[in-house]
C-alpha cells in the first residue's frame, strides 16, 4: 500500500513538472486540433456559426471538387521547386565555408542572416523587388534588353517568383543546420583519408555526405512540412492569384474559413492536409531512414 | 533553475493570453433581437451624459480625412451624442471584422458596408432596418435620389442609409482624340466604337485603351445592357437568387471584347491594379478607360496643364438597346441591433445629419461621390464645383437616365465578394488563353454553388 502511494506521488510529481508544457500544448495544439475535427463535421452559416451536423459531407465536397486537387498540385509543385533547390544551395555554401578561418566567419554570418528576417518583412521587400514597373528585377532586365516580366502578375511566373523568395529565406536555417552537421564530423577521419591518398571530392562523397545524412534527412522532413504549410509569403505576394496559380492548400483553406466564413469545409481541408503531411512524414521516415547513416 | 522558471512563465503567459483572447470568440447565443424589433419611443433626456457611438468605416486617404472633418463638425454641433470614428481597412477587411464581432458586444453601433454586401447584412439579422426609424420619425426621404434608394431597397424596405455613391463612367483624353482626328466632344458609346477609336489612337507609343481587372465593370456592363446578373430578378423579388448568369451572352460579349482589344494590342493590361491604369492615362500613354466617378477629381486635377479629360457613358455592345442603366456603387451605413436603443437612436440622429443637403454637398465636392439628396445640387458649393469640374455632368446624367428595373438595380446575393473572386480568376484565365465562354462557365458554376451553399446554410 505504502509502495503504491509512493509511486503515485512520484508520478504526480512528474506530471506536475510536465503540466506547464502540457497546458501550452493543450491550448495551442490539442484544443484547436479537436475543434477543427469537430468543425469539419458541421456546416456553418454565413456568419460562421454552426448550423448542422453533416457527417462527412464537407470531406465529400472537397474530395469531389477539381479546385482542391488543383491547390494540392500547386502545393506539391511549390514544395518540389523550393526544397531541393534550397538543400543543394545550402549544402554547397556549407561545404565551401565550413573551414575555420577569418574570411569564412563573415560568409557564415551572411549566409545564415536570412534566418533573422521575419517572413512578413521579407515578403514586403520582395514584393517591391518584383514590382512590374518600379521593381529592381525588371530594371536589371532592361539593361540586358529583356522585356519586363510580370513576376507576380503572370500566371506562368508567379509560383516561380514566390519559390525564389522562399528559397532565399529558407537558406539561412538550412545552411546553419548543415554547417553545424559538417563541423561535427571528426577531423581525424579526414586525416586518415588523406593519408590513404583520397582527393577532396572523394572525401566529400565518402565521408562528409554519409556522415551528414542525418542532418540532410532532418532538413528534408522539416522542409516538406514547412513547404506544405507555407502561407505568409503567398498571402502578401500574390493572394493566391493570378488565376489561382499560387493558390496552395493553406491559402485556399484560409480563404474558405476566414473570408467565405465556411469553417466546416475550411476545417475539413485542414484535416485532409494534416493527413497528407502525416503520410508523407511516415513515408519519408520509412524510406530515408534505411539510407541515413547514424554514426 | 533558470530553465525551470522559463518553463513555467511561458505557459502561464500563454494561458493568460488565451483567456484574454476568449473575449473575441463569437457566442451566438446572445444575439437577442430580431430584424423587426419593435422600437419604443426614444426618451432623449438632454441633461444626461452624452451617448458615445462607434462608427466603423472603410474610407482611406483623403476621403478618410473628409470623414474625420464631418464627424468633428457633428460632435461640435450638439452635446448629446459623441461619434467615435474608426477606419477599419478596405470594405472586405472591414466586413470581416464586423463578422467577427457579430454576437458579441465589442462591435460598432454603426458601420459602413459596401453595396454588394447588402444582402449579407440583411440576412445576418444583426441590424435594425433604417426603414423602421424612418417610419417611426416620419422622416422625409422624398428628396433622396430615387436610383440610389432603389439599390438599397429590398422587399420594399430600406435597410440601410446610402452614404457614398458613385457610378462607372468612361474617361478619355480629349487632346489625344483631337490628334487622332476623332471628335473630342463625341465619346464612343458602344464597344465597337471604342475599338474603332482605339485603332485610330494606338500609335506613337500611345495605346488606345487601359484595361484593368475590376469585377464592378462586368456588373455594370450587365446592368447597362439591361440584363440580369443572377436569377430570380437579380435576387430582388420574393425568392433569393439561386444561379449566376455570369456566363450568359452579355458577360461573354463583354469579356470577348476586352480580350480582343488586348490581343490586338489596342489595350494595355494593368492586372488588378486600377491605380497603375490611371497613372498611364494621366501620363498620356493610354487614351481611354472606365472607372468610378470617385476617381474623377483626381484624374482631372492630375491631367491639368497636360490635357483635357472628357467623360462619357459606360459603353455597351452595339444593338443592345434594352432598357438599362448603370447600377450605382459605393456604400451605405447600417445600424447594428445589438446595441441599446439609445445608441441606435444616436446613430440614427447621426445618419440624418449625414444625409442633410449641407453635409452631402460638402461630402460630394470633397470626395467626388454623388450627393444622395437632390437638394444638395441647390447648394452653392455644388454649383461652383460643377463649373470647375463639368466632367461630373456626364456622371449625373448617366445616373438620372438609368431606367429603374431589376437589371439596373444590380444583383443582390450574399456571396458577392466570393463571386467577384471567381470572376477575377476567370478573366485572368481568359487573358492567358482560355476562351471567355469556357472561363466564365467555370466561374458561373462556382458562383452558383457558392450561392446555393449560402442559401442552404443561411439560417
Automatic annotation (TrEMBL), chain A:
Broad class of where this protein is predominantly found: membrane
SUPFAM superfamilies given in the database record: MetI-like
Transmembrane segments: 12-34, 74-97, 109-129, 156-178, 211-231, 268-288
Secretion signal span: none
Pfam family, one: BPD_transp_1
Topology class, membrane: Multi-pass membrane protein
UniProt KW Thylakoid keyword: no
An individual GO BP term: transmembrane transport
Domain ABC transmembrane type-1: 72-284
GO CC entries: plasma membrane
Keywords: Cell membrane, Membrane, Transmembrane, Transmembrane helix, Transport
UniProt entry tagged with the keyword Lipoprotein: no
Localization, UniProt: Cell membrane
Family indicated by similarity: Belongs to the binding-protein-dependent transport system permease family.
Protein name: Carbohydrate ABC transporter membrane protein 1 (CUT1 family)
TrEMBL record, chain B:
A cellular component term, taken from the record's GO annotations: cell envelope
Coiled-coil ranges from the UniProt annotation: none
Compositionally biased spans, kind Polar residues: 445-459
Cell compartments where the protein resides: Cell envelope
Positions of region (Disordered): 26-46, 434-459
Keywords tagged on the record: Signal, Transport
UniProt cross-references to InterPro entries, sorted A to Z: Bact_solute-bd_prot1, SBP
Signal peptide: 1-22
UniProt entry tagged with the keyword Transport: yes
Family classification: Belongs to the bacterial solute-binding protein 1 family.
Name of the protein described by the UniProt record: Carbohydrate ABC transporter substrate-binding protein (CUT1 family)
Species name: Cohnella lupini
Amino acid at each position: 500500500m505504502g509502495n503504491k502511494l509512493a509511486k503515485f506521488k512520484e508520478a504526480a510529481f512528474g506530471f506536475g513538472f510536465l503540466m506547464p508544457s502540457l497546458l501550452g500544448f493543450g491550448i495551442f495544439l490539442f484544443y484547436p486540433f479537436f475543434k477543427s475535427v469537430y468543425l469539419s463535421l458541421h456546416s456553418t452559416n454565413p456568419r460562421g456559426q454552426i448550423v448542422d451536423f453533416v457527417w462527412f459531407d464537407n470531406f465529400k465536397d472537397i474530395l469531389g471538387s477539381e479546385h482542391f486537387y488543383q491547390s494540392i498540385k500547386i502545393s506539391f509543385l511549390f514544395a518540389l521547386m523550393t526544397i531541393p533547390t534550397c538543400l543543394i544551395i545550402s549544402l554547397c555554401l556549407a561545404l565551401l565555408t565550413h573551414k575555420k578561418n577569418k574570411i569564412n566567419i563573415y560568409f557564415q554570418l551572411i549566409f545564415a542572416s536570412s534566418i533573422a528576417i521575419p517572413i512578413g518583412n521579407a515578403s514586403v521587400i520582395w514584393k517591391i523587388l518584383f514590382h512590374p514597373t518600379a521593381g529592381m528585377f525588371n530594371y536589371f532586365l532592361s539593361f540586358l534588353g529583356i522585356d519586363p516580366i510580370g513576376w507576380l502578375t503572370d500566371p506562368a511566373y508567379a509560383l516561380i517568383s514566390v519559390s525564389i523568395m522562399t528559397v532565399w529565406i529558407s537558406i539561412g536555417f538550412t545552411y546553419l543546420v548543415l554547417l553545424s552537421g559538417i563541423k561535427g564530423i571528426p577531423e581525424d577521419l579526414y586525416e586518415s583519408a588523406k593519408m590513404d591518398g583520397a582527393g577532396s571530392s572523394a572525401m566529400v562523397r565518402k565521408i562528409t555526405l554519409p556522415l551528414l545524412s542525418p542532418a540532410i534527412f532532418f532538413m528534408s522532413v522539416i522542409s516538406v512540412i514547412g513547404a506544405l504549410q507555407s502561407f505568409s509569403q503567398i498571402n502578401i505576394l500574390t493572394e493566391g492569384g493570378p488565376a489561382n496559380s499560387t493558390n496552395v492548400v493553406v491559402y485556399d483553406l484560409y480563404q474558405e474559413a476566414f473570408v467565405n466564413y465556411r469553417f466546416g469545409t475550411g476545417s475539413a481541408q485542414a484535416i485532409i492536409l494534416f493527413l497528407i503531411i502525416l503520410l508523407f512524414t511516415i513515408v519519408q521516415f520509412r524510406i530515408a531512414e534505411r539510407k541515413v547513416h547514424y554514426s | 533553475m533558470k530553465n525551470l522558471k522559463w518553463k513555467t512563465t511561458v505557459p502561464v503567459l500563454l494561458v493568460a493570453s488565451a483567456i484574454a483572447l476568449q473575449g473575441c470568440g463569437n457566442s451566438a447565443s446572445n444575439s437577442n433581437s430580431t430584424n423587426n424589433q419593435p422600437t419604443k419611443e426614444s426618451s432623449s433626456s438632454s441633461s444626461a451624459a452624452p451617448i458615445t457611438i462607434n462608427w466603423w468605416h472603410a474610407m482611406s486617404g483623403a476621403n478618410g480625412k473628409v470623414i474625420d472633418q464631418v464627424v468633428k463638425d457633428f460632435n461640435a454641433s450638439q452635446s448629446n451624442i459623441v461619434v467615435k470614428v474608426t477606419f477599419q481597412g478596405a470594405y472586405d477587411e472591414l466586413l470581416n471584422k464586423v463578422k467577427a464581432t457579430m454576437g458579441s458586444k465589442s462591435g460598432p453601433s454603426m458601420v459602413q458596408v459596401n453595396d454588394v454586401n447588402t444582402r449579407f447584412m440583411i440576412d445576418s439579422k444583426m441590424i435594425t432596418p433604417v426603414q423602421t426609424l424612418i417610419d417611426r420619425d416620419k422622416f422625409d426621404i422624398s428628396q433622396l435620389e430615387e436610383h440610389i434608394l432603389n439599390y438599397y431597397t429590398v422587399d420594399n424596405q430600406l435597410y440601410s442609409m446610402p452614404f457614398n455613391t458613385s457610378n462607372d463612367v468612361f474617361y478619355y483624353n480629349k487632346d489625344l482624340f483631337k490628334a487622332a482626328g476623332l471628335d473630342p466632344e463625341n465619346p464612343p458609346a458602344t464597344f465597337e466604337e471604342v475599338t474603332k477609336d482605339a485603332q485610330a489612337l494606338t500609335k506613337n507609343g500611345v495605346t488606345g485603351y487601359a484595361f484593368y481587372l475590376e469585377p464592378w465593370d462586368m456588373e455594370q456592363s450587365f446592368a447597362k445592357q439591361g440584363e440580369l446578373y443572377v436569377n430570380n430578378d437579380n435576387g430582388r423579388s420574393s425568392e433569393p437568387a439561386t444561379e449566376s448568369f455570369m456566363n450568359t451572352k452579355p458577360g461573354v460579349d463583354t469579356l470577348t471584347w476586352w480580350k480582343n482589344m488586348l490581343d490586338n494590342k489596342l489595350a494595355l493590361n494593368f492586372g488588378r491594379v486600377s491605380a497603375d491604369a490611371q497613372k498611364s492615362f494621366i501620363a498620356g500613354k493610354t487614351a481611354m478607360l472606365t472607372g468610378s466617378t470617385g476617381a474623377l477629381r483626381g484624374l482631372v486635377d492630375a491631367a491639368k496643364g497636360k490635357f483635357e479629360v472628357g467623360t462619357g457613358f459606360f459603353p455597351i455592345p452595339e444593338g443592345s438597346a434594352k432598357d438599362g442603366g448603370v447600377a450605382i456603387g459605393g456604400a451605405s451605413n447600417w445600424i447594428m441591433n445589438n446595441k441599446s436603443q439609445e445608441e441606435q437612436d444616436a446613430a440614427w440622429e447621426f445618419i440624418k445629419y449625414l444625409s442633410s443637403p449641407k453635409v452631402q454637398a460638402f461630402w460630394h465636392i470633397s470626395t467626388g461621390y454623388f450627393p444622395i439628396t437632390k437638394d444638395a445640387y441647390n447648394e452653392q458649393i455644388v454649383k461652383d464645383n460643377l463649373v470647375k469640374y463639368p466632367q461630373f455632368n456626364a456622371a449625373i446624367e448617366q445616373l438620372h437616365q438609368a431606367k429603374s428595373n431589376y437589371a439596373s438595380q444590380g444583383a443582390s446575393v450574399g456571396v458577392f465578394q466570393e463571386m467577384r473572386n471567381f470572376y477575377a480568376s476567370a478573366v485572368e484565365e481568359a487573358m492567358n488563353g482560355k476562351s471567355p465562354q469556357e472561363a466564365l462557365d467555370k466561374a458561373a458554376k462556382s458562383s452558383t454553388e457558392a450561392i446555393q451553399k449560402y442559401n442552404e446554410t443561411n439560417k
